[in-house]
Amino acid sequence: MTTLVDLGPVAQLRAGRLPRRLAQMTVGLTFYGVSLGMLVAGALGTAPWDVLHTGIATHVPLTLGQVLMLASIVVLMAFWPLREVPGVATLANPVIIGLSADATIWLLVGVIDVDAAAGDGALGWAVRAGLMVGGVVLCGFASALYIGAQLGRGPRDGLMTGLSRRTGWSLRAVRTGIEVTVVLAGLALGGAAGVGTVVYALAIGPLTQAMLPRWTVRLPGAPVDPPAVEAGAGAG
C-alpha cells in the first residue's frame, strides 16, 4: 500500500505516472458528479454540501452544478488567507463534478423521469433507496479514485485542512463543524436534506478509507505506508 503525499501543483505534474493519474482523477470526479446526481434524483436527501447547493438553487435561475461551481469559487477565495495551495484537482474538481452532476440529473429526472417510474408505493421507495445507496457507494469509490490520483485536494477539502491547520482543531472536528453549518444554512434556504444526508455523512468516510489503498497511485520515492486520510468532506 502507498501513502498520500502533499505536493504543490508543479510537483504534482512532475511526480510521475501523469497520464494514469490524470485519467484516474477525471474518472473519479466524473463519478463523483454522477453520484451526487443520483442522490438528488432519489429525493431522500443529498450530501451535506448539496443541501446548501440545492437550497441556493431554489432561489436563483441556476442548476445544481452551476451553483456548485460558483460556491467552489467562493471557497477557493479562502485559500489565500488559509495559505492553502490549489492543485490540479482543486481547479478541475468543480467543473467536472458540476457538469456530470447536471448531466445525471437531466438524465434521471428529465429523460428517465424517476418520479414517474418510482411512484408512491413500495417500488417507488425501492427505486429511491437504490439511488441513495448506490449514490453513496459510488461517491466513496469516486473519492478514492480522485484522491488516490495524488493531484491535490478539492476546494472543500482544502478549506477543511486549512482551517484545521490554522485553528489547531482535528480534521474530524473541522469537517463536522463545516458540514453542520452548510446543512443548517441549506435547510434555511429550502435545501434537500433527509435520510440520505445522514447515511452519506456516516458512510462516506469509511467507504473512501476502505477503497483508498487500492487506488492510491504510488509515486516514485513515496514511502510504503497505508494512507492516513480524513476523506469524504463533501463535493470536493
Describe this structure in words.
- It is a single chain.
- This protein is mainly α.
- It has one domain.
- The protein is 70% helix and 0% strand.
- The chain has eleven helices and no strands.
- It is globular and about 55 Å long.
- It starts with 8 loop residues before the first helix and ends in a 21-residue tail after the last helix.
- The relative contact order is 0.24.
Number of strands: 0
Outline type = globular
In total, how many domains does the architecture comprise? 1
- Main sheet record: none
Distance between the termini: 24 Å
> Unreliable stretches, pLDDT < 50, 5 or more residues?
223-234
Label the structural class.
Answer: mainly alpha
Total number of helices: 11
Give the strand content: under 5%
Order of helices and strands: HHHHHHHHHHH
Integer-rounded radius of gyration: 17 Å
User: Helicity, in percent?
Assistant: over 70%
Overall average residue pLDDT: 85
Topology overview:
Elements: H1 9-14, H2 18-42, H3 48-57, H4 64-76, H5 79-82, H6 88-111, H7 114-118, H8 122-148, H9 155-167, H10 171-188, H11 195-215
Helix pairs in contact: 2-6, 2-8, 3-4, 3-10, 4-6, 4-9, 8-11, 9-10
